[in-house]
């Protein structure tokens, strides 16, 4: 209890004016994979949701029940109970104890871990390409779904990294930004791909990120390989030269000439390669300058060679022909 009070003071939480105001928090941990049976021996942690600092810990009994007694009730305190199961932490609902109030019995649902083939599918995958001078700004929205009642944690390699999802975006990409900081912290670059060891619990998650691909030529091809099976794929290209775009997906009729829209008419398997052919891309002025410099150098070389050739020709014409004098 003393360590709990010290932790609250360190977090800058002021105690309620009424001394000794405490409350009980009790509940049960159940297994969602096994029809909600209680989970005995599960570790339950009570945290603060802002910085996830642990306030107290306990273990469930044979009936999966847990109990925190004498939980302080300072003004504005929010508690976040959660349970650990097979290496994955499952947060419960946030609680706000109040003096004299009561907290209903808490139920925390956990799931068994799955380490075999990935069950992940994409309910939708949208790729938005903005054509700008010298760069393609690409934003992808993926609805990642785990349709099972297990948590996919990937295989367990020798090193401390278990990949659960890899994003095969173009290797020339620059500056990836995730719309949610949580995902930005969980992905890292491995062999040219963005990978994560994030456990995927049952249900759907929205993954949105933006990256940039430099444009060096007026014509080029962008390829994107699907990482997981996808029910619906849509590619949209906006900006200059949108009317000079071709794709191996079906073109959708769109009255706006500044937008080219393509989509799949059927479910696509993981590994399917989307090819986007772009023409008339606006390239930076220095790209033109580079080619102009090369043309200028080549022209100067040709002029120099031609000048020397014609000078040699004139000299050969003017040179007198020597003949032997007759005696």
General description of the model:
The protein has 327 residues and is mainly beta. It has 2 domains: 2-111, Immunoglobulin-like (Sandwich), CATH 2.60.40.10; 121-278, Immunoglobulin-like (Sandwich), CATH 2.60.40. The protein is built from 3 helices and 23 strands. Strand 15 and strand 16 (193-196) form a beta hairpin. The longest helix has 34 residues, at 285-318. 21% of the residues are buried.
Q: How would you summarize the topology of this molecule?
A:
Blueprint lengths: L1 H9 L11 E10 L5 E2 L4 E5 L6 E6 L5 E8 L7 E6 L2 E4 L14 E5 L2 E2 L6 E12 L2 E12 L4 E2 L12 E3 L6 E5 L2 H6 E4 L2 E4 L6 E12 L5 E6 L7 E7 L5 E3 L2 E3 L6 E5 L9 E6 L6 H34 L9
Parallel strand pairs: 1-8, 9-12, 10-19
Antiparallel strand pairs: 1-2, 1-5, 3-4, 3-6, 6-7, 10-11, 11-17, 13-16, 14-17, 15-16, 18-23, 19-22, 20-23, 21-22
